[in-house]
Structure formats: structure tokens, C-alpha cells
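Protocol step 4 of 6.
Sequence for Acyl-coenzyme A oxidase (Anopheles minimus) entered exactly as in the expression construct, tag removed. Do not edit the line below.
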Amino acid sequence: MPASTVNKDLQAERDKGSFDKNEFTLWWVGGKEKLKEKQDLETFLANDPDFQNETPIHFLSHKELYEETIRQATAIFRKVRKFHEDRGNGDPSNYMQNLGGLLGNGIIRQGNPLGIHFAMFVPALLGHASPEQQAEWLPRALKCQMLGTYAQTELGHGTFLRGLETTATYDERTQEFVLESPTLSSYKWWPGGLAHTVNYCVVMAQLFSKGKCHGIQPFIVQLRDEETHMPMKGIVIGEIGNKLGMNGVNNGYLGFEKVRIPRKNMMMKNAKLLPDGTFVKPPSQALTYGTMMFVRVIIVRDTAFHLAKVATIAVRYSCVRRQSHINPDQPEVQVIDHLTQQYKLFPAIARSIVFKLTSDNLWEMYNQVTSELDQGNLERLPELHAIACCLKAVTTADAAKSVETLRMACGGHGYMTCANFYNTYGFVTAACTYEGENTVLLLQTARYLIKVWNQALKGQPLGPTVQYLNSFIQNRNNRHPWIDTVPGIVKALQTVAAGKLRLANDHIEQRKKAGYTHEEAVNLTSLELATVAEAHCRAFLVQSGYDMIEKLCQKVSPALAKVMRTIGELYAYNEALDSVGSLVRFTSISESDINRLQAKLETALLAIRPNAVNIVDGFAIPDVLLGSPLGAYDGNVYERLYEEAQKSPLNKEPVNKSFHLYLKPFMRSSL
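Step 5 output, C-alpha cells:
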């Protein structure tokens, strides 16, 4: 499309903003240096002919899509590496992070089959391999001289790791492990890049030595010959087929038919197996699952970025689209002027920002706990595991709902594949399942909360994320007073979580007294337990968002601070109204309080309205990564939609051959 001017309605929105969007961008991206690097890299790639496709990928066959995705994936890696090396940043960690998130997914629309190499294979080497093993494998992995994935999920088992069936049996005579898939259900199923892309794999398998099972341990296995790429002897491998989304990721299946690997291929940073077959336990079995905790932290961050992307598309479109009258004697208004539309758009913006802030908070906690682990201190590991589990579950579920809400907020045009809600929905809904199915993760958090509840009853010290339980226990006979400030809402939501936790614990004990085993009692209380974990998480999100915004407001201009506080307030009011039934159960909130809370939410929506476009502009997502005619910076929605329509293969000829083959004979026949 030729160069064009910016849509006048969209430009008017930019002109009316009350804060400096560049200041917002500097915070969102992480400072001037990171912003310049981001912009330079995006310009470098956006103008590259390797990423200019005349035919959109949704018109390609499944096989063509994979082949095009591999071409782009290898090209983007080479170019990102060259970009950093030309600037003296040859450390792979500088460019690894660029290949995920919006950059990688924005250019490679159906998912990067090499993404799992950096997201899980390399972190698995760092988390599970001994220093000697890292020296052997890590340099080659960082240079992509070997490509890997992470194989844990099986056809018959997913989140329940103890149920995995793949076995690794130690042969003392040859000092080798024999890997086997004893049943069809034990085949590894789902790992990204596994089918035709990678040649190595970290495999999670049940370790057997001296006739005993020692549980799940990680092994590195060569899957394909490095020259021919043919499967190694005993390796059964292929692709699992088409999916709802992410069809470029090349998810595969993997079976083992007595595959032998040397003893050194068991990753031994934590657990160890001596040459004589003696098993040395790790300090904590949870150390084996460190890679998953790392990935869950990343998922929360990426979820924030996906929400920022779709919010940008929907907000810009809502400023360009005009629909209906508010006053009958005046012209049609911008869709964004309808309060109902603002309620669809602005909470998604707030979620994106609060999720990003919380991911920063979680990242600090992760680094602190992993540093303590290196010193042998495992005390806070269960707390990190619990909060990472519920945050992954709640943020991905909320993001999936938000993407669908924003798609519908764009009417019929939002249903178009080219609008790019489809791709983002594929990413966020997949995240609801991979790295732990959400309900299972909520129940893992609940198990931790039951444990710390009983510790709190005994007066034992609690970790920072559950400190609020002490206050509740001290005042559990009094109804918590309702205060409609953000700190007041945090306390109220914590009271809800604590109240639900107390009831769930009581019901478990009652069922045990009625003759159920502990496990049966927990299962019969699992509906309550899932809501306990969700309530705990939502209280943490509101608190984390508030605390992080207040810290930020000490560093930024008053104008930006005012906008950020309003965003935090909107998030808190919305969470409180969504939890109003629980607030009625556990706090003193009244009908008039609820009415005032609703009015505060509506006031926050109206306060954000003049700044909505500048906020999403502040996310600094270029058109090449948005990939949507509805959300382009210039706002020329209709021209871009028409241009996209011309790319359909059906428009390359005025008459399709089906007319002569089927339609004409059909219309000429007598039915």
C-alpha cells in the first residue's frame, strides 16, 4: 500500500493525551539502551526481504507452512546474532531473549520451532547438567551447532509426572542406560520442534538401577544423525498433526526401542548415579523441576506482552470505527466512546500492565530463590513453586478470555484471520495447558496453602506471599471491614482467600473424620481448593500491581504517575467486582459499597479514555509485529483490509475452475 496519512480520528486521540508516551515506553521496555536496541533490531528485520511474504501463511498447506517457518526461524536467528555481534554483543544471552516473545512470534506467526531450544533445552542444561556436562554440551547448544527440545509429556500422561512411563534402566556391565517406551501411551507427545527440527532432546524418564525405581530423572539423548538428520537406531519419531494454533512449532512424538546412551548422559547437577549403579538423591526432588518453574515465570511475562498486542489492535480500531449514535441529533460516534466498549478494552490494558509488573516481581523472587538454592537453602522453594503455579494458571486463563473479548469488540472484522487475534489466541490458549494444566496447577498451589495454614495455626513463621494468613487467624472471629481503597481491596481479597482456605481445611478434616482417607477428602474438596488458590493468586496480583506501581510513581513524572495509578485502580476495582459474591461472604461490604465500587470503576474507565491510544502506543509494538490491518499505526483500517483481501489465492482469477466442473453442470441440471 502506498504511503498514507494517519487517520484523523486516531491522530486526534494522540493529540489529546495527558502524559508523555515516550516516558511510558522507556519504562515498559526497560530504559533508553534497551529501547534503542529494540527499535534498531525491529527496523533491521522489518526491512529484510527474508520476512516479506506476498502470500500470507494462512493460505499455505501444512507442509509448506512448516518449511516456510523453518526458513524464517533460521534466518531470524542468523540475523539477530549478526545484529548483536556487529554491536560487540556476542554473548548468546543477549540475542536469545530477542528470539522469544513478540519479536519471534510477530515475525514467525505460527510459532518458532527453534523457540523450545532456547526456552527449555538450554535452561534444562543450565538447571540439570553438571559443570562437566555443561562444558561438553552448552557451547554447542548456544551456537545452535546442536538443536534440542524437552520431552516430558507423554501420550498417556501430562502434568502428573510420577505417572510417566518412559524408562531408563542402568546396565552396570556396559555403564549405559537403556531407554524404552514400554507402551504406546508412554510415547513422548507434544514437544516443540521434536518432529523434524531438532537432533537432541532432554528426556524425562523413570530411572531404574539395581532393581529399584529412583523416580523421574533427566537424560540427554541424540535423536538424529548430525549429517543426514536420519533418526538414530531405535528412535521412533514423527509429527503429531495439525492443532488449533502454533502450527509452525513442529510438535512431535517420540518412542524408544532399547536405545542405549552412556552413563554421562544422565544429567547430574542434582541427582547422581555412580558407576556401580548406586543412586545419590538430590537435596530436594523439587530441584528436578526447576526448568518448569523458570518457564512458568517466562509464561507470565509473555502473557503480558500478548495482551499488550491485542489491546493495541482493539483500541486503535475502536477509535477509527464509528458505530451508532449516543445523541440522535449528532453524527455516529467512535466505538470507543461507548462505555460498554471501554469496559471491554481498558481492563485488558490494565491486566497487561499488572501482569508485566507481577512478572518482574516474580522474576526477582525466582532469582533470589535460585541464588539461595545454590547455597543449599531450600526454604523458599515451595513458596516460589506455589506462586508460580497459580500465576501461570490465572494469567493465562484471564488472557485467553481477554483476547476473545477484544476480538468480539472488533465486530466482524475481528473474526478475519488477518486481524491476527487468531494467532494470539492460539498462543495464549496453548499456554493454559502446556507446562502444567491450569486446574492441576491451582491444586498444587492449594496443597501448599493447606500446609502453611496449619503452620500458621501453630504459630510457625510464614513466607512473604502468605504472611496475610497470620492477620486473618488473629481476627477470624470478626468480619473484615470493607474499605474501597486499593490497599483496602488487597486486604479484602486476602480475607476472601484466607476465609476460603479455612473452610476448605475444615471440610477436609470433617471428611477424614467421616472415614475418608486424606487423599479422598482432598479430592472431594478439590472444587473449593481450586477457588482458594485462585483467590490467593488474585489477591497477590492486586497487591503486586499496587506495590510495583507505587514504586514506579516515585521515579516518573506526575502526569504518568496519575495514569499508572488509574490503571492500577481499574484493575483492583474490576477484580473486586468480579469477586463481589465472595466479598459479601467474608467482609462487611454492603449494597451501597458495591454501588460506589461500580461508580469508581466507571470513573476509572472515563479517566483512561483520553489516554487509551497513547497508552497502547507506549507499548511500542511496530506494525510488522502487530500483523493486523485493524491495529496499524496509521489507522487506515479499510484500505488495509481491502489490500489483505486481494492476497487471497481465489482472487488471482475471475472464474474458478470449480464453476465449470461443478457449478455450471449443477445449475443446468434438473433437480
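Step 6, annotate. The first strand starts at residue 148 and ends at 151.
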